[in-house]
Amino acid sequence: MKISYSYYRVLSVVAFLFAFNLSAKSQTIDTSKFILQNDAAVAKEEPGTHNGGGITIGFNFFANAKGLKTVFRKRTLKPGSSIGYHLQKEDEIYYVISGNGKMKMNGETFPVKPGDAILTRPGSSHGIAPNPDNDLVILIVYEKK
Questions:
Q1: Closest Cα partner for 98 from 66, 75, 121?
Q2: Which end of the chain is more exposed for a tag (fewer CB within 10 A), N or C?
Q3: Following DSSP, what letter does each residue of 90-112 receive, concatenated?
Q4: What share of the chain is helix, strand, coil (3-state, %, to 5)?
Q5: In this predicted structure, what is the pLDDT of residue 145?
Q6: Can you give the pLDDT at residue 92?
Q7: What are the distances in angstroms from CA 59 to CA 11, 12, 67?
Q8: Tell me, what's the pLDDT at 77?
Q9: Smallest Cα–Cα separation from 141: which of 83, 79, 95, 101?
Q10: Cβ neighbours of 23 (radius 10 Å)
Q11: Strands 83-87 and 43-47
Q12: How far apart are the first and last CA of the chain?
């Protein structure tokens, strides 16, 4: 029996599609290895922390993740609100996403803008507030104790 070239070609295409289908199924997302959260799911209106007052929106990502040793938060500081001046007990990073404001660190005040990252060290004191004409959106990261 003579098998034509087109038969081999069809057979190779079928084999390719079968193999592709198997590999596509093996690439499903294993959600036990990560957590995906969105702003809308964790947003909560709160007063400014550390007695800062005013209205802020806090985003406490991964708060219920078992074994996570890092706190990862976003906070939108509305005009008139702030994170109150307080003594720092662990390394903490502030990263400005948008808006402009002022940060007070160890008695000195300086402006902050998008792209600024500030590492506050244990034993230092600091607070941060938006300028009166805009929201200040920041990320805050520190080790969970």
A1: 75
A2: N
A3: S-EEEEEEES-EEEEETTEEEEE
A4: 20, 40, 40
A5: 82
A6: 97
A7: 55, 53, 19
A8: 98
A9: 95
A10: 9
A11: unpaired
A12: 76
SS3 12: helix
Given a contact cutoff of 8 angstroms between Cβ atoms, the answer to whether 62 and 72 are in contact is yes
What is the DSSP code (8-state) at residue 21? H
The 8-class DSSP code of residue 50 comes to: T
CB 52 within 8 A of CB 80: no
Residue 77's H or E segment, with its range, is strand 70-77
How far apart are alpha carbons 52 and 83 in whole angstroms?
5
Q: Is 39 helix (H, G, I), strand (E, B) or coil?
A: helix
Q: What is the pTM of this model?
A: 0.77
Q: Whole-angstrom Cα distance, residue 67 to residue 6?
A: 58
